[in-house]
Amino acid sequence: MEIRRRKNQIEISELDPFLAELLRQIPTSANTEGAPAAEQRIFSPPANGKEAELCAEWKMYVEPELRRLFQTATQTVGADLEQLNGNEKSLANRTLRIPTKHADAWLSVLNQARLVIAAKNNFTETELNDHLHSPIGSRRDLSLFQVNFYGFLQEFILRELEC
Amino acid sequence: MSVEPLWVEVAGPIIAGIEMLPKNAAPSTIGAPTIEEETSTEQALDLPWHVVVHNDPVNLMSYVTMVFQRVFGYPRDKAERHMLEVHHKGRSILWSGMRERAELYVQQLHGYLLLATLEKVS
After folding, report:
1. Is the pTM of this model over 0.90?
2. Is the Cβ–Cβ distance between A118 and A111 less than 8 Å?
3. Residue B15 placed within a domain
4. B92 touches chain A (CB under 8 A)
5. What is the value of ipTM here, to two decimals?
6. Is residue B28 part of a domain?
């Protein structure tokens, strides 16, 4: 896989089917449905329990706004990922082009996906910092790889935004 | 036929309703105004609030720095100092001030998926 900036696009090329599949899973991975721990993390309270009124108002007025914000970003990313739709053979060496104006949406959804996966799997800080983890041998390992892969993409997009 | 000026028509009944006190009248019986104590809610609204960001092992350090720069307009070195404080101490106070603005900052931080809370200054 190669990743580089080309004019107004971030280009991820030479994607093998495995990485292409991980990319396609970004919107699904960011979904908190059916995962209370992830829901709790993404929509965390704005204050401690003493501020019950503030927390209740937040849930009523702010949370729906946040949900809309995240949904819009997910739709943007989903639309970009349609470039990867196709059968397995045509996925080989496929290139994904992300318009730089979509960079914020990508940063947001990648972050959300990482948080949701980490919450679902209850990863420890030690696990998350173990970048030299052994090869994927379980579903949990795959999830950890996913978190690190999405983190790598986030880092690249951030670097490009700074340029 | 004489016509009274308009102000007499309008103000007359009002003036008639006011009892004029003689010049040497005793002091008014109106007591000193009572100043009500502010309620605790009003006091709470006036107290400054902290915007606190808490550590989260998932969020990337570079991402958190970028968010601090964007939300608070901090220069990179200040944003990095706060990010490192969050990382090493578990939390950092990013801003203090009026509640309304503090809420807006926390909302923005949640929009970037950071763990942020409002805390009343004790």
Report:
1. no
2. no
3. no
4. no
5. 0.91
6. no
